[in-house]
UniProtKB/TrEMBL annotation:
GO terms for cellular component: cytoplasm. Homodimer. NCBIfam families: hisS (TIGR00442). This is Histidine--tRNA ligase. It is found in: Cytoplasm. It comes from Fulvimonas soli. Gene3D superfamilies: Anticodon-binding domain (3.40.50.800), Bira Bifunctional Protein, Domain 2 (3.30.930.10). It holds the Pfam family HGTP_anticodon.
Length: 457
């Protein structure tokens, strides 16, 4: 019988254990910071009804949906009525509409789950990936102050992830639309198309955007195109500079004035939330491609690795669940695409393989003494020290080699001599050092060693 080749489909990230630990620690750091700011966890099913997911607001992503069908339905030739979620926002909208009367508003949720998209197979693009989202959803209204809180969460997350200096960049869609209106681009659909082109500035360059805006599709004059390009290249170096550049835009339509007022309030509050001015800035090119953003928009970039692109993005929307309920549910949210971020950070050498989550390996010198080895392991585990016991024996050198390869730093040896003297030998594989410790002092000694190892790295 021929063997089936062991293989995974393109576009998935499958990690070895020590890399999985590094990934898991990033997830834990994000979760810890989300909870620190008072966000509550939810999970939604990976599979939703297709008509719930395909609400005609997801844009390009809706053309990348994986449909789901049982074998029974396939045999009967039925069309799929189920699909895998392609993001966490559409399921959130369904969730809030369905549980609206049981939720407390403003509803502050975080969600960290896998999503699925039929991406073209290429390096760094994933068909299955983790998204880590937070949103604040209001009932009928939601203060602009929440727009300022989310950058504080972003700052807290990435400061603890410790992946290098970063900047949270902000803009406001109302400001952009108002500015376009002042240039004679009044049609909302054309404004949206221009927004999408502007969003390509960092990836495709000013020349490409200029050519597109003055081309056949848009037909804008060279003068208008230059004004748009000048507008979207505005950046701030400090909070005072941001206020000055917003004021320098001059008077404009109502949307521009409203957007400017909102940006000023948000920028000022971000500082009050404890985010240093070095970590946030005005960037009038940030548009975000999705149509449902209506006000504040965010993108976060690593200062020393701009080629990675945005590592966290999001914004304000006016009515999250309009497809499912008549209630008005405005909100603001951010998302970290963790699978792609982890992969990019690893490629850039910014994250490394983690150490094992196992602290200690208890070796086996004599099968007859297995109860003594298990007693040591039980004591260590009761003290909160993750411990593995060698259950099959073998040469001691082979057991050391196993511990080293598995990333276990400390090895405990309890041989005939140690048992006779009432001591334990502890070997530190990283320092290539070993010492004896009285059996009664083992837990305290290992705790000290592990604390020092955590500090020293």
């Amino acid at each position: 019988m021929a063997l089936t080749p062991a293989r995974t489909m393109p576009g998935v990230l499958e990690l070895l254990p020590l890399d999985q630990i590094a990934f898991q620690r990033m997830l834990d750091t994000i979760r810890r910071n989300y909870e620190r700011f008072g966000f509550l966890p939810i999970e939604t099913p990976a599979i939703e009804y297709a008509d719930v997911l395909l609400t005609k607001t997801g844009g390009e992503t809706e053309r990348q949906v994986y449909f789901v069908q049982s074998t029974g339905a396939l045999e009967q030739g039925e069309k799929p009525e189920l699909a895998l979620r392609f993001d966490l926002t559409v399921p959130l909208a369904r969730y809030v509409a369905e549980h609206e009367h049981d939720l407390s508003f403003p509803f502050r949720r975080y969600q960290m789950q896998r999503v699925y998209r039929g991406e073209r197979a290429q390096r760094g693009r994933f068909r299955e990936f983790y998204q880590c989202d937070i949103d604040v959803i209001g009932k009928d209204g939601l203060s602009i102050r929440y727009d300022a809180e989310l950058p504080a969460v972003i700052y807290s997350v990435f400061r603890e992830l410790d992946i290098g200096p970063f900047t949270i960049q902000l803009n406001n869609r109302k400001l952009m639309r108002g500015y376009f209106e002042s240039l004679g681009i009044a049609d909302s659909e054309q404004q949206m198309l221009v927004l999408r082109e502007v969003d390509k500035l960092d990836k495709r360059g000013a020349g490409y955007v200029r050519e597109t805006l003055t081309g056949e599709q848009f037909g804008l004059s060279a003068e208008v195109a230059e004004k748009i390009l000048a507008f979207v290249q505005v950046r701030s170096a400090s909070l005072a500079d941001a206020f000055g550049k917003l004021d320098a835009l001059g008077a404009g339509p109502e949307a521009l004035e409203q957007g400017r007022a909102e940006l000023k309030e948000v920028l000022g509050l971000i500082r009050d939330f404890g985010v240093p001015e070095t970590h946030f800035a005005l960037n009038l090119s940030i548009a975000r491609g999705l149509d449902y953003y209506t006000g504040t928009v965010y993108e976060t970039t690593l200062d020393e690795h701009p080629q990675i692109g945005s590592i966290c993005s999001g914004g304000r929307y006016e009515n999250l669940a309009s497809q499912y309920t008549k209630s008005k549910l405005p909100g603001v949210g951010i998302s970290i695409g963790l699978t792609r971020l982890y992969w990019q950070l690893r490629e850039a050498g910014l994250v490394d393989t983690a150490r094992s989550t196992v602290d200690v390996l208890v070796t086996q010198m004599d099968a007859a003494q297995l109860p003594a080895y298990l007693a040591v392991a039980n004591e260590l585990r009761a003290a909160g020290i993750a411990t593995e016991v060698v259950l099959e024996g073998g040469k001691l050198g082979k057991q050391f080699k196993y511990a080293d390869r598995a990333g276990i730093r400390f090895v405990v040896v309890l041989g005939e001599d140690e048992l006779a003297k009432g001591v334990v030998t502890v070997k530190d594989l990283r320092r290539e050092d070993q010492f004896e410790v009285p059996r009664a002092e083992l837990v305290r000694t290992l705790r000290v060693e592990l604390e020092q190892a955590a500090v020293m790295g």
